[in-house]
Amino acid sequence: MEMKDKIREKFKTLYGTEGEVFASAGRVNLIGEHTDYNGGYVFPGAIDKGIMAEIKLNGTQKVKAFSLDYDEYVEFGLNEEDKPQQQWARYIFGVCRETIKRGGKVEGFNTVFAGDVPLGAGLSSSAALESTFAFAINELNGNKIDKFELAKIGQSTEHNYCGVNCGIMDQFASIFGQKGKLILLNCKTLEYKYYPFDPKGYKLVLIDSCVKHELASSAYNKRRQSCENAAKAIKANHPEVEYLSDAKRVWLEEVRGKISSEDFLRAEYVIGEVQRVLDVCDALERGDYEIVGEMMYQTHFGLSKLYEVSCEELDFLNDLARKCGVTGSRVMGGGFGGCTINLVKEDLYDGFLEAVKEQFPAKFGHEYKVYDVVISDGSRRVE
Ligand code: GLA
Q: What does the pLDDT look like over 195-233, one tens digit per residue?
């Protein structure tokens, strides 16, 4: 049975009625990692995997929610301060509270939802969940909150209810995604541009290391703090620096002795990455995928050695990609596990996957997964 039919069936059984169906996407990011909270560029796209929810307003102040994937039911009041125990319910709770904070109307509702975006793989399953509810609540209550603000509702949910001080990339991509297009977003000005992405003769494939790091959120917040420390030190000499992405490499050099060597390395990565995104845009306009790929490898090096958000499995996959002649490869998303994103010539695709199959489980003794990427639409009402 299709996901939508399963959702509809459960909704009918639980609540005896029918609601409306909404969906939002997970995301990939071609390049521009850990640049969003530094005011830099990102280059994501929505994918054909995400979260789908059936929802109907229930005329009360209560939310009744069922997660098909966890086979769990949760109820919470819209005026309660205490967040629910279940992590998945916290996202919905947070979205409701953040909508109310922005003056939006939120009536209680019944919902059943499910997803096909792998959890903890760096594909932003949580952003897909937040965006689905932010979008649906906005539509069903007739609030006229714009799409950027909906993305910020998801982002604030992460900050205030889930302890992750994330940037705007994931929620933005999940909501703004368009079929066949990547989106270049300037995270400082919030200007964005769609780029048709159909590299002839190449495939985009994700290899999921199936590594999930428990402490990812505190390590993530620590990286962000390092960047802010570096930006602050540079600002003392160059007041125009609002975000780390405003800084030049030489300005970082000036504060070498004034910040910790760890903060220095983190900042070195970010300043390089901001430039790489722009180089990739130029290369895409010329159709030069070799340069795109080379930038991806450079990003991996930076994420692994300077930003230190890779792990043994992801470094191995990256090395193997290079050995197999894969055009570009890097760890994608926040890191500390999850996927590598690989730009592979079609005629090398089978050989690469064969090599992963032979070598990865033998070395690490656990499974991995392969996802072909289809760039798809973001938040929408499902007919
Ligand atoms: C996570 C965060 C994003 C972004 C990436 C790294 O996915 O949610 O905001 O910072 O990590 O690029």
A: 999 999 999 999 999 998 765 789 999 999 999 999 999
The β-bridge relationship of strands 44-57 and 20-29 is antiparallel
What 8-state DSSP symbol labels residue 178? B
pLDDT range class, residue 315, cuts 50, 70, 90:
very high
Looking from the CA of residue 334, the nearest atom of ligand 1 is 11
Whether the CB-CB separation of 211 and 338 falls below 8 Å is answered with: yes
Q: What is the pLDDT of residue 359?
A: 98
Beta-ladder partners of 202:
345
3-state secondary structure of 302: helix
Nearest CA to ligand 1 atom 8: 166
Give the residue numbers annotated as catalytic, written as ranges. Answer: 170
By alpha-carbon position, which residue is closest to atom 11 of ligand 1?
334
The letter for the amino acid at 95 is V
Predicted structure pTM score: 0.97
Domain 202-372 has CATH 3.30.70.890: yes
Angle formed at CA 173 by CA 121 and CA 128, multiple of 5 degrees = 55
41 lines ligand 1 (CB under 6 A): no
* Secondary structure of residue 50 in the 3-state scheme: strand
Class of domain 3-197+377-382: alpha beta
Domain boundaries, the chain: 3-197+377-382, 202-372
Instruction: List pLDDT tens digits, range 240-275.
Output: 999 999 999 999 999 999 999 999 999 999 999 999
